[in-house]
Amino acid sequence: xxxxxxxxxxxxxxxxxxxxxxxxxxxxxxxxxxxxxxxxxxxxxxxxxxxxxxxxxxxxxxxxxxxxxxxxxxxxxxxxxxxxxxxxxxxxxxxxxxxxxxxxxxxxxxxxxxxxxxxxxxxxx
Length: 125
Fold this sequence. Notes:
Elements: H1 4-8, H2 12-21, H3 27-42, H4 49-54, H5 62-76, H6 85-99, H7 103-109, H8 113-119
């Protein structure tokens, strides 16, 4: 009764139908199955994994977690660092733009151009 392949293949509607066809005797299990079926149905558009893979995108959280650790935590969690939410968000925005190779676009969108971006390179290290 493994349905993982349906999820991996992007056949969410079929997965939901199979889950709804289950009739567990245990009432708690029945509620859990119904809750999961509702979740998959509600989020089907986000679970088109084959399409996402064809676009070269990652579908697991491991890459995102590693990126968060590399881009955000490594800068904000240095010894002696104390941040306000506003300050942390500003540094995160700049680092994300730099690591996604959109650093100049970030500053251009704020009207600062490259002159401003050069004055903030100390935030990137």
